[in-house]
Amino acid sequence: MFAKEKMTYTAVPLPDRPNITDTEAKAKATAFREFMATRHSIRDFSDRPVPRVIIENCIMTAGSAPSGANHQPWFFAAVSDPALKARIRAEAEEEERKFYDGGASDEWIKALEPIGTNADKPHLTTAPWHIVIFAQRWGEFDDGTRYKNYYVPESVGIATGFLIAALHNAGLSCLTHTPNPMKFLNAALDRPDSEKPVMILTVGHAAKTATVPEIAKYKKPMDKIARFY
Fold it and tell me: What pLDDT digit, counting tens, does each position of 57-78 carry?
């Protein structure tokens, strides 16, 4: 929590400075690209437990992400309690049924066909963990007064990317799930109105029978995602 009397600029020496050659940098960049290419979103999870300390470390990695004014406008609700997971599944599936039964446009439903999704979300009770990601619209000083957060969607998006990479690095699989609307998550997890749920990140080990949609293996080539000027 921020304190008003500490809202001043003080410069300190850069605490960490990589010192590697271009050759080493190229090797590391290539190795990381190849490693991240082995990451897949799955819907078939094992019920194999995942120690809490692993989830804690991955969340701390996410918390090290850059953010607007360093306000760190995120909150990660890690859920392993079976009853709470069952509640989240029931309420998420209720919203999903509305989505598939007319809440979404025909174009949207058509776009989802190659992914093979529907309103049933068994992973929400099978997987050992969910990390529900909240975006904090505003924060509070230590005296209880509010302050505005800046670049909230961008900051939370960056932190979520850190989190997904950290989970993959720990040998875990995950699935991003965004039922719409998600306000039920505030009530289920007792989060304040200042926080907006962004997604449910289901986390665990892939089931032995896990599959991925064939289309998910297609990634745009370099000339479709970047241009060097």
Answer: 999 999 999 999 999 999 999 9
Please list, in sequence order, all residues whose beta carbon lies within 8 angstroms of the beta carbon of residue 158, skipping any fewer than 6 positions away. 65, 66, 67
Q: What is the CATH number of the domain that holds 141?
A: 3.40.109.10
Peptide bond into 82 cis (omega under 30): no
As separate numbers, helices (DSSP H) first and strands (DSSP E) second, the chain gives 8, 6
CA pair distance 130, 145, nearest whole angstrom: 31
Task: Assess if residue 8 is contained within a domain.
Answer: no
E strand spans, 12-105? 74-79
Let me know if residue 69 belongs to a domain.
yes
Asked if 127 and 202 count as a contact pair (C-beta separation under 8 A), the reply is: yes
The residue type of 55 is I
Sign of CA dihedral 165, 171, 176, 177: negative
Residue 205 is given by DSSP the state P
Structure tokens at 53: 């300390």
Give Cα 167 distance to the centre of its chain: 10
As a whole number of angstroms, the distance between CA 176 and CA 111 comes to: 17
Number of structural domains in the chain = 1
Q: What is the pLDDT of residues 162-195, one digit of tens each?
A: 999 999 999 999 999 998 889 999 999 999 999 9
Domain hosting residue 74, numbered range: 60-212
Element (H, E) at 147: strand 146-148
